Amino acid sequence: MKRLNRRDTAAPDGRMPLMAHLRELRNRLIKAILGLVVGAVIGWILFEPIWDFLKQPYTQIPPEHCLEGKCDLVVHGIFDGFFVRLKVSLMIGAVLSSPVWLYQLWAFIAPGLYNKERRYTYVFMTAAVPLFFLGAALAYVTMDKGLQIFIGLAPGDTTVLVGVQDYLGYAQAMLFIFGLTFELPLFVVMLNLVGVLSHERIRKSRRLLVFGVFVFAAVATPSQDPVTMLALALPTIVLFEFAELFAYFHDRRRVRPGDEYAGLSDDEASPLDLEAIDAELEKGGRTG
């Protein structure tokens, strides 16, 4: 008996039965999880060099607050070493397997999109990964600044012992918050491409947007110090400015003179030319 796949069960307009849709979601999730597992195994094998790289910002804190002048992280519990290795392996696995789970996400939603929207999704997927890595790289070079500020506030005659779990949680939060924040301007570009968000609306909301970015940076950063806040807010505002510039040129190209159908999707009605209709009615009345 021939097994029906998604193309067999899908209608010409991309619709498919609910159970087939759920089976497709299950299959995509299994493939994405398998990719994550393979990446995590590689991360487990390469744990030592990756961990040496991750802990470098901590080694740059003031040595007077370290034990015997050597800044080492502290393992508090019996299982801390295992869980740290597991978390780092999963984090690296998520990064290494990103092409796999991004493709599975794309393959799941693509049949329900129009051809024009599919092209936009390719743009999103192509730009999302570099932007995330750009934000994560900025977080990495900024982590030591926040650590120095707060650890430096400890009295001079004290020794600061930082647990390995605490530091890993701080590092993960910094990397993911910076990386995901750098994706927000890309969403603005995508909303403009599909006609949801115009340049005029972005321009009118610029002041509110700048204020919101600073508030978000002050609340979202783990250390919430001024240096880390500015390191997140200022580049994000620059990226939003590029997104607004893109929206400006895209909207201008969309409304070219004589191109009254630009920006319309396949199932959207075109606007009526009322002046032409009135002229035709007036002409008909004269001939009558």
From TrEMBL:
Gene Ontology biological-process annotations: intracellular protein transmembrane transport; protein transport by the Tat complex
Tagged with keyword Chloroplast: no
Protein localization: Cell membrane; Membrane
One function term, GO molecular function aspect: proton motive force dependent protein transmembrane transporter activity
The UniProt record lists the keyword Transmembrane helix: yes
Name of a matching Pfam family: TatC
Segments passing through the bilayer: 29-47, 88-110, 122-143, 173-196, 208-224, 230-249
Keywords: Cell membrane, Membrane, Protein transport, Translocation, Transmembrane, Transmembrane helix, Transport
Lineage top rank: taxon: Bacteria
One GO cellular component term noted in the UniProt record for this chain: TAT protein transport complex
Membrane topology: Multi-pass membrane protein
Protein purpose: Part of the twin-arginine translocation (Tat) system that transports large folded proteins containing a characteristic twin-arginine motif in their signal peptide across membranes. Together with TatB, TatC is part of a receptor directly interacting with Tat signal peptides.
Subunit structure comment from the entry: The Tat system comprises two distinct complexes: a TatABC complex, containing multiple copies of TatA, TatB and TatC subunits, and a separate TatA complex, containing only TatA subunits. Substrates initially bind to the TatABC complex, which probably triggers association of the separate TatA complex to form the active translocon.
Similarity comment: family membership: Belongs to the TatC family.
Protein name: Sec-independent protein translocase protein TatC
